[in-house]
Amino acid sequence: MVVVGALFVTFGSNTGYAKDALLSAKKDYITCWKQPCVMVAGSEWSEKNPNGVGIAVAMGTQPGVTDDQIKTVLTRDFAAHGMRNIKFFFEQNDAPALGITFHVRGGTKGIFTIDDVREQIPAIAKRAANTNPVFQ
Prior knowledge:
This protein has 136 residues and is of the alpha+beta class. The chain has one domain (24-130): Glutaredoxin. The chain is built from four helices and four strands. It has a four-stranded mixed beta sheet with strand order 2-1-3-4, with helices on both faces. The longest helix is centred in the middle third of the chain and has 14 residues, at 67-80.
């Protein structure tokens, strides 16, 4: 028995390539002499950008997700809550797990694991977006 057939594949104009593309975190890695490096950098950046969020990521030796995935997901989550003024700071850590901290107006919130970081975003975005002069 011989079966002959054809496979037709079409690509619609509404295919979301950019939506599925990962953002690159390669240029967000930093090195410095102050420890913990990314936390200091995130805090300093947030002092200069009071209505933004500095995101410090210490990549572990066994993180379970890539740096590009972290940057992409957190960027999208913050954008969904109206916060686009964010800056990432990455460093390679020697601990197995990764840690993420958020910095708003020089303050620090966290260290969060990959499992619980996303649930913090609504409150952090709201805090950073607060334009009340008392909080500036």
